Amino acid sequence: MFLVDAPVTGRREVARGMFIVGMHAPEIAAIVRAGQFVNLAWPRGPLLRRPFSVYRAEGETIEVVLKAVGVGTAQLLGLRPGDRVSCLGPLGHGFDLSGPHAILVSGGLGVAPMPLAARDAHAAGMKVTWVHGARTAAELCTEAEGEVVVWATDDGSRGFHGTAVAAAPTSGAIVVCGPNRMLAAAAERWPDAQVAVETYMGCGTGVCLGCAVPLRAGGYDRACKEGPVYRAADIDWTVLPAHLPYGVGA
Ligand SMILES: Cc1cc2nc3c(=O)[nH]c(=O)nc-3n(C[C@H](O)[C@H](O)[C@H](O)COP(=O)(O)OP(=O)(O)OC[C@H]3O[C@@H](n4cnc5c(N)ncnc54)[C@H](O)[C@@H]3O)c2cc1C
Ligand code: FES
User: Residues 170, 127: one domain?
Assistant: First the structure.
């Protein structure tokens, strides 16, 4: 884990209201794996850091994807190239990508860990099938073009008319990210799927217990330490909040 004073390298829009922000963080870029995240702070930002999955890591730069859902995300999107972000990471346990075939299933902002998941799966010699969904075509991440095999929209404006979970094939190593209600649906269909969950977070390093994930076996895990990737059937979906902003746009 590194704490990097990272200059912002740029910003681009990849779907309606959805942006990629790049940061120069070579130590993190060199070792981050799919499903891991960074906890970010910036001058005059919120008291608590804000967690974001690493979207891409190329050369010495990492990227995150976000929408403005509150104070912190709006401020982050207002930063300019050269502005500094305190970047703590990589944090958490990522996806275990092994076997002949990876099925990546993302909804809305759940696109976040998938470019790295595709990278790591290809590196492991896996065939990759990526299913990406959103409410409507304008909210699909355009950068998935070329990598996504199946598109899905709730309103039928592009690809499969329905959810990404319903559109996905059934066999393979299934990796899912999106709003918690989507992950709960995935757990019904694929109990053994790996899901990246969203919780509230504080420290991001296992100390504050602010990221409790309710387990079906009883008790809680820390999403920042034991997660954020879990076996779908291991989570008590009746307790985990269903509407956190990571899922906005899904
Ligand atoms: C491991 C992990 C990875 C994430 N990756 C991404 C990502 O790649 N892209 C992305 O857009 N979002 C991601 N999120 C969610 C993102 O961290 C929150 O949307 C963000 O912290 C909200 O900050 P805010 O200041 O804009 O919101 P606030 O103004 O604080 O609040 C707006 C809304 O966000 C909720 N919220 C506040 N803090 C958090 C938090 N830490 N986690 C969840 N909800 C919160 C509040 O309850 C409220 O509903 C991730 C969350 C986790 C736990
Ligand atoms: S965010 Fe503090 S223990 Fe997980």
Answer: yes
How many angstroms separate the alpha carbon of residue 246 from the centre of ligand 1?
6
CA 199 to ligand 1: nearest atom: 53
Q: What is the pTM of this model?
A: 0.95
* DSSP assignments along 109-161, one per residue: GGGTTHHHHHHHHHHTT-EEEEEEEESSGGGS-GGGTTT-SEEEETTSSSSEE
The string of pLDDT tens digits covering residues 65-107 is 999 999 999 999 999 999 999 999 999 999 999 999 999 999 9
Cβ of residue 113 lying under 6 Å from some atom of ligand 1: no
Tell me, yes or no, whether 13 lies in a domain. yes
pLDDT tens string 64-75: 999 999 999 999
66 lines ligand 1 (CB under 6 A): yes
Domain end call among 43, 73, 91: 91
